[in-house]
Amino acid sequence: MDYDQARHRRSSSSIRSEYASALASPIYTPSPCSSSLELPLAPASQSLPERPAPFASLPTPASLAGLPAELIDHILSYLDPLDFAPLSATSQQLRFHALNDSYWQHFVQENVAIPLKNPGLNSSFRELYIRHHNRWFLTRHRIWYSDHPPYGKLLYARFDPHRSCIEAYQVVAEPGHQQQEILDWNGQQVLYQTFNPRVRLDLNQPSLTLYGDFPDSRRIPLGDEIPMSNSEDDANRIELNFMHTRRSVPEELEWASLWPPLKLPSPGQQRTRNESATGYRSIGYRPDFSSLSTATFRVRQWIEFTRFFPANIHVMGQGRGGGGRVGETINTFATLPEEVYTPTKEKPWQGIWCGDYAGHGVEYVVIMQPDDPQPLPVKAAKAFALWPETDLDMSGAEPDVEHSDEEDEVDDVYDDDTDAISELDIPAPEQITRRPIPPGSEATAAAVARTFRNRKTGQWHTLPTPNPSDTLPHKGRLEAIKLTGDPHVPRGEFTFLVNDMGSEGHVGYTSDPIFYDASSSSSAERVSESVSAMSTIPHGARIVRSCGQVANQAFHKPNWLPNQLIFVGMDRLAHFWPTWGFMSFYQRVGLEGFVKA
To answer: Residue 22 and residue 31: Cα distance in Å, rounded?
Structure first.
C-alpha cells in the first residue's frame, strides 16, 4: 500500500470519527492535531452528521423596550418615583413611558386626601410631585404633635390644590356652653360638667406653609432650612423656618433625648434627637437622603424686627441700630402610624379624642388598643392591684406601706385634699345645679353585683352586672396618651389606662341618662330621648376598671389613682374619679371634617 492510500484510509476512518465526536460535545473546539489536517470531500454516497444547535430549544431573550406598551405600563406601575429617574435615562422609548403623567398623578394622589383631577398651577403632575419631593410625608401622615413643654400643639397637614402648597393648621376646640351639675346617683353625689366641644382648624394663621421648589429656581439642599413667611408686616413679623430631621440610629435609643417618646409609636419607629446646644445648626443634625426622617420635622420660629431702632436701644442678636431677632423657639413635631388611631371593627375605640380637663381646658389624647402591649408602669400596676382602693393618703399623710429597695417610694400626689380638688376647678356646692334622677331609672340602678366606695363622701355606689364576656370589641388593653398636656401631666405622658376591657376588668353597666344627655339640657323631652336611646344599647353603658395619672405641677411626684371608664358610645367616653366624686367626658375628633374645612 503506497503512501497516498494510507493517508486516504486514515482520513476516512479515524479523522471522521474524531470530527463526529467533537460535534457531539456542547461546545465544539477543534483539536490541535485535527486542525492542521485538510478534510477531503466525502463521497456522494456518504454524508457527515449535522452539527446540533445546543440553545435552539431556549427562547430568544427580549428587551423591556421590545414588549408591548400595555405590558410596559403594567410593569412600571410597580416602581417607586425614584426608580423613574434611571429608567428615563435608559432609552428614548422608556423615557416616553416614564414621562406618562398618569404615573405621577398616582404618586401625588397617594399623599393627598382629596381627589385631584388636574395639577393646578403646575404644567403636569410630574412637575407637582417634584415640586414637593421629600416633603409629601407631611400630607400623607396628616396628624402632627409637637414637643413644646408642657402643652404641645396638634397640627393637621393638608394639600391646597388652588395654591399648590402644603399647609398645616392647629387643631383647636371651643368647649361651648358648659354647666356644672351634681347628680344624686344611687345615693352618691357625683359632679359632672357638660361637654360638647366644637373641634375645628384655626384657619386664621397657618402653622406651616410650603410652596415647594419651582422648576426655574435653585433647589434648596436637603439639610438647609426652608423659610416660611408668616406675616406680611415688614416692620414686625413672625418668621418660620422648616427643618428636615435626621433619623436616630439604634445606639441613640438607649441614652439620647428623643422625640417622639418611646411610649408613643412612630411610623417605621423613626425618632430624632431632641436636644442641641447649637440650636440644631451643627452639621450633625442635617440629614442626607439616606438618613432623612419622614416621621419628624422641626420649625424654628422667631420675631424679626426690621424697623430702624435708635442708637441707644440694643436689640438682642444685633448691634446698635438696625433690626434683630428675638424670642427664638424650636419645636419638633412627630406623627403616629395611621393604623394605631384608625378605628376598626375589632378596635373601635382607637382614635384621636379630646377630653374635658376642667380648669386646664380641652386636651387631645390618642387612644390605642395594642395587640402586644408593653408591661404596665410600676405605679400603674400597683394601682390596678389595689383597685378600687389606693394607698395614697389624700389628706396629706404618708401611708404606712412597706417598699422594696427596687421600687420607688409612694409619693403624695397633693399636699392635702383641698388642693387636690382645687386643681380640678370644682366650684362650691351652692354654685352647682342639682339634678334629680329621672323617673324610671331607679330600676336599672338597683341591680347590684359590685360596690365601690366613694373615698371622699364615705357613701357606696352600686352598679348592675350582667355576665361579662371577652369577645371583641371589649377585650384587651386600652391606652390613652396625651398629645397636648397641661402643667401637671404634660404632652407625651399617659393620662389613663385600662388593663383589661374583658372579664378581668369588667365592673358593670349603667343606663343613667347623664351619659346620653351630656349637653346640659334638663328638660323632660331630652330625658325621654335619652332613656329611649339607652334602650337600644344592650345592658346600657359598659363600665371597666381604669387608673388615671395625676401629678403636681411640672410633673412632680406622678402617681396613679383608681377610677372607672364608661363606654358611652363609639364616639363618647366618660371617666369617673371616685376619689373626688368627679366625672369628665371624652369625645372623638372627626378627622374627616378637616380635609375640606
So the answer is: 9
55-65 per-position pLDDT tens digit? 445 555 567 77
The H or E element that residue 461 is part of is strand 460-463
> Which DSSP state fits 8?
H
The conformation of residue 360, written as its DSSP 8-state character, comes to: G
The 3-state secondary structure of 62-99, one letter per residue: CCHHHCCHHHHHHHHCCCCHHHHHHHHCCCHHHHHHHC
Q: Give the integer Cα–Cα distance in Å for 216 and 220.
A: 12
Per-residue burial over 395-427, b = 16 or more CB atoms within 10 Å of its CB, e = otherwise: eeeeeeeeeeeeeeebebbbeebeebbebbebe
What are the grid coordinates assigned to 112, written together? 393627598
Q: Is the Cβ–Cβ distance between 543 and 463 less than 8 Å?
A: yes
Domain ranges of the chain: 65-126, 139-176+199-334, 348-594
Amino acid identity at 582:
F
Separation of alpha carbons 246 and 294, rounded Å: 9
Q: Is the pLDDT of residue 512 over 50?
A: yes
The model's pLDDT over 262-292, given as tens digits with 9 standing for 90+, comes to: 999 999 999 999 999 999 999 889 999 899 9
- 218 pLDDT band, cuts 50/70/90, is low
What are the C-alpha distances in Å from 186 to residues 192, 512, 516?
15, 10, 18
User: Using CA atoms, how far apart are residues 326 and 310, in angstroms rounded to an integer?
Assistant: 17
